[in-house]
Amino acid sequence: MNQRARILLSILGIVLVLLPAFAGNYAISVATLILYFAFVGQAWNVMMGFAGQLSLGHSLYVGVGAYVAAAMFVNLGIAPWAGIWVAILVCMAMGAAIGFLAFRFGISGVYFALLTIAFAEFTRIGFDHLQWTGGSGGLFLKVAQREQMDLFNFRGPPAMYYYSILALTAGALALCSWLLKSRAGYYWQAIREDEEAAQALGINTFRYKMIAVLISSAMTAVSGVFFAFYYNNLFPEQIFHISRSIEIILGPIIGGIGTLFGPILGAFVLTMLADGITEVLAHFGVEVPGIKQVFYGVVLLVVVMFLPHGIWPTLAKKIGVAK
Amino acid sequence: MTALLEVREISKAFRGLKAVSNAGFEVPQGGLVALIGPNGAGKTTCFNMIAGVFKPDSGEILFQGNRIDGKRPDEICVAGIGRTFQIVKPFAGLSVLDNVIVGAFNRTKRLSDASKAASDILDKLGLGPKRDLPASSLTLPDRKRLEVARALATRPTLLLLDEVMAGLRPTECDQMVEVFRDLNAKDGLTILLIEHVMRAVMALAQHIVVLHHGEIIAQGTPQHVVRDPAVLECYLGEETEV
Questions:
Q1: Digit-coded pLDDT (tens) for A224-238
Q2: ipTM of the shown complex
Q3: CB of B156 within 8 Å of any CB in chain A?
Q4: Which CATH number describes the domain made up of B3-80+156-241?
Q5: CATH code of A213's domain
């Protein structure tokens, strides 16, 4: 990171920390959403961007993380600070199962992606029938009084959620930047580029792919816990749905797969775009069903066509922070 | 001299096609051995069995006295055998230096150490000025050098070279020969190479093993092998006049 990058990152950090002081609740909710997608995008990026393992079923870890912590809270009265560890462990176990099946039996590429979708799908169906978590009817957390901050039970005003997800996103950025400079980071990139050559250089590719999956699933589990306590209601049909998995991966793809800042930038661009389109359409009184998705799709198409490596690599060069 | 690598009667068939049958040879510690033969003779299959890509159907491979046949490629690399690929496999998205750092991490956990070791090797192979370029931008001769640099970075005791001279111009080939001779003489690196370019084989090898249809038809010193009637008949006759 050069000096300019350090300065810009500090400015961004300060702006984000001070944001609740001058922004209203709506702006904070948008910022929270952006940071949420930045965090979970970063988590996905560890697997795909760093290690080259395409997961199209990351909603699995969001959902399981959310359900585990929320069900423990609602049914057993266990605070999320304890539940989150269980959520992480359960998600890592599921990641390990998928990874083991795939990597031990040489399932890779699109077939690996299909396997991740399959797991997310049958977990969804399983939760539809799991009465302990409310089945398909959903699981609801009591909406607490917004003004009171109850940090222990993770209930409180929007700013509390905002600062939590901000801290998580900053932590994820720091973690990923450290990982990329570590031996594991180099090994992942080698595996991503050419697995056979990586193995010939002494890399236990099975072990390092498993590590990527475990880290990614653990991080995504944390985002799931946040999701549960922020939105307060969980439905298997929604949280495990493949469209959720796609939503997660769009940020890093648009921002720049494998880059540190891509997931953050992508989350910002996409969320602002979705909200912007809604605003503009409302302003002109356009009420055509599905028009928002069409605009959204067109923008994605344009970015993919003209910036196939995402926005960040090009932007980084323009503002002089690329290396 | 004791044998660093002992290949004992290994065989490998692919769906009934015998790629290698009962091939046995030795590579002495500090030696420079060439494995030659016409296309399809089973040279690369032999290599892949030593490097752990394939498990031999029968026979044994011993490295420093220990069985290595059937081990995974990464275990074999850690044990001290580095290899290059005939069809080069650079990590295209990474810089030249990062490519070699990946190899250097085989012997250290610290990025600073790996980076230093990688830089030294790049300088030795003349790739120093190109260290920050993406590997995808290299020309074929440079990719071949990168392939060697990456394998060397794992700090092997035995280096397996799979046709690294192919596609190089004679002067580039001579430079490569010089590098390997140097590594063998000064660093004591043992080298086993597959090579079609006889210019390089004759300049480098102390011992030549000739494979034909998966079987070893001759082995010995270069002078001995090039006079062997069986070798001349199948393969070397016209090549030696180059």
A1: 999 999 999 999 999
A2: 0.90
A3: no
A4: 3.40.50.300
A5: 1.10.3470
Pairing of strands B58-63, B3-14: antiparallel
* Listed residue (B194, B41, B182) closest to B125, CA to CA: B182
pLDDT band of residue A145 (cuts 50, 70, 90) is: low
Within-domain flag for A217: yes
**Residue A323 counted as domain residue:** no
Whole domain around residue A260: which residue ranges?
Answer: 3-318
Tell me the count of A-B CB pairs closer than 8 A: 76
The DSSP call for residue B158 is: E
- Cβ contact (<8 Å) for A200 and B73? yes
What does B3-18 look like in DSSP terms, one character per residue? EEEEEEEEEEEETTEE
pTM, two decimal places: 0.91
DSSP one-letter code for B90: -
The per-residue pLDDT for range A270-293, each reduced to its tens digit, is: 998 888 888 888 888 877 788 778
Nearest residue to A33 (alpha-carbon basis) of A127, A126, A161, A150: A161
Whether chain B has a CB inside 8 Å of the CB on A104: the answer is: no
Give B50-94 pLDDT, tens digit per residue: 999 999 999 999 999 999 998 999 999 999 999 999 999 999 999
The answer to whether residue A196 neighbours chain B at the CB level (below 8 Å) is yes
Interface test mutation site (partner A, options B83, B91, B111, max chain A beta carbons within 10 A):
B91
